[in-house]
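User: For my dataset I need records formatted as: sequence, then structure tokens, nothing else. Please produce one.
Assistant:
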Amino acid sequence: MFQILIIDDDQIVQLTLTRILEKQGYEVLTASDGAAGIAQAQHFHPALIICDWLMPRLTGLEVCRQIKSDPNLSTTFFILLTSLGSVADRVKGLDAGADDFIAKPIEQNELKARVRAGLRLYQISHDLKTQKQILEAELAEAVEYVRSLLPPPMTEPLVINSLFIPSQRLGGDCFDYYWLDPDYLAIYVLDTAGHGLRATLPSISVLNLLRSRTIPSLNYYQPNDVLSALNNTFQMTYKNNKYFTIWYGVYNRVNRQLIYASAGHPPAVLLSGATTQLSRLQTPGIPVGMFPDAEYTNGFCNIEEYSSLYVFSDGAYEIHLSNGTIWDLEAFIELLKNCQNFSECNLNKILNYLLDLNPKDSFDDDLSILQINFN
């Protein structure tokens, strides 16, 4: 049964509306002034409110503003009861948040019809709000699931730290690092196009596939072979129409050589030794899943002592600033370059800098960064 609240200082109007609406099967609450009406609304959360415009102390407009500013009452349908008929007055009412108007003197059939229409809209808004809450809860669960899959920090024989800040809609970022054998470490970051579970599920599939090493006859020590195998497995024409970018590297800790390949992904950034000479590690290659005959090539580099490698998704630098511009890759690389040593260039410092840049409560895209410090 829908609950309707009537707020009016005229007892005759209260009684008239109550009788009409109770005959229609609604449960009716009443209040004789704006303050009492707001208190009733906050306690009972009625589906619809009929409020007189002209009342002492709090007017109908003021009541409407307070009701609509309450998140728990945002879907309540609000009807202003008024003898004011000018366009300017109705504009004021709409600006205050009113959903409809009923003119005095009250015509019963019009009242019934407007209440029915208002309750239909309330039900739709209420259902949408409920679905939104369910979706947000599911996304929160998905975020925690992704977090549970990501690797913990590594302290020996390398120091690896990571940063994963999901966007409000959850993107398709995922990363991993693990030893192929005691001397070879695999490292990768991937980013599936789009947002939501449709983007997250392919990322999780790739992580599980690579971690379990279940692709037949694949040389996991050769990054270009890994990307080719993923491209054959995850063609977007039959895999949810989702492609992804990836940077994949294998580090040999004995000869201190890194072999890597990328597929449409931002370059990894290597700060070499005490001089912090900067190198961008990237190879040609289109995102995985776009074309079945895509080719990928390997790149090689030697890792000096006390070097640091950063592998990241584009969410680390595609930040919309308050002035309407976008903070870009060059600015992010400059931030890394300005770090003089490992103790200063930690991920918390980088995150705080990015948070200061971001004018919103959350990032537009997932933000993932791996920091690998080589002894």
